[in-house]
Write a structure and sequence with these properties.
Elements lengths: L1 H18 L1 H5 L15 E2 L4 H13 L1 H15 L7 E8 L5 E10 L4 H12 L12 E8 H11 L2
Parallel strand pairs: 1-4
Antiparallel strand pairs: 2-3, 2-4
């Protein structure tokens, strides 16, 4: 009986690993070494991609704000000037295949970085006609998000 339960539990866990693609997309530190200044372009460098990313940041604002709210409750506040810069690997089809932290300022909360990174993993961008993978930097300015949270909290 225990053997059957162990097999069922293992199958269930394996199934959730495949179903949870956004979590699999987030890698705290880039293992490939691709996210360096010479290879990664700012989101604004490509107007089409930059516009899509701005739209997605507004669309996923609520989810990002939940991550910040959890951090503030856990830490008792927010450090001034905190910011996180993410590197995105976008497939030719527009799917995010990797999100990694490139740079952090005034914050070292890995749970916060992972929470926001997994939210970004849910994004879907338009496919590129040239069939090339894109490496893009996305700065997440926390000051603006925290200001909105403090101003509109209920």
């Amino acid at each position: 009986m225990r053997y059957a339960l162990a097999i069922a539990a293992a199958a269930l866990c394996a199934g959730t690993a495949f179903a949870d693609e956004p979590a699999a997309c987030y890698i705290a530190k880039d293992p490939t070494g691709d996210f360096v200044s010479s290879k990664v372009q700012p989101a604004e460098a490509d107007p089409g991609t930059g516009g899509q990313i701005k739209k997605l940041m507004r669309q996923y604002y609520r989810e990002t704000n939940k991550c910040i709210r959890k951090h503030m409750e856990r830490e008792g506040g927010w450090p001034n000037g905190a910011a996180i810069e993410y590197g995105l690997r976008i497939s030719p089809e527009g799917k995010l295949t990797q999100v990694s932290v490139v740079e952090v300022k005034n914050n070292n909360d890995a749970m916060l970085m992972a929470c926001i990174g997994r939210t970004i993993c849910e994004w879907q961008l338009e496919a590129k006609a040239d069939g090339q993978e894109r490496l893009v930097k996305v700065p997440v300015s926390m000051a603006e998000l925290v200001w909105h949270h403090e101003t509109f909290k209920q």
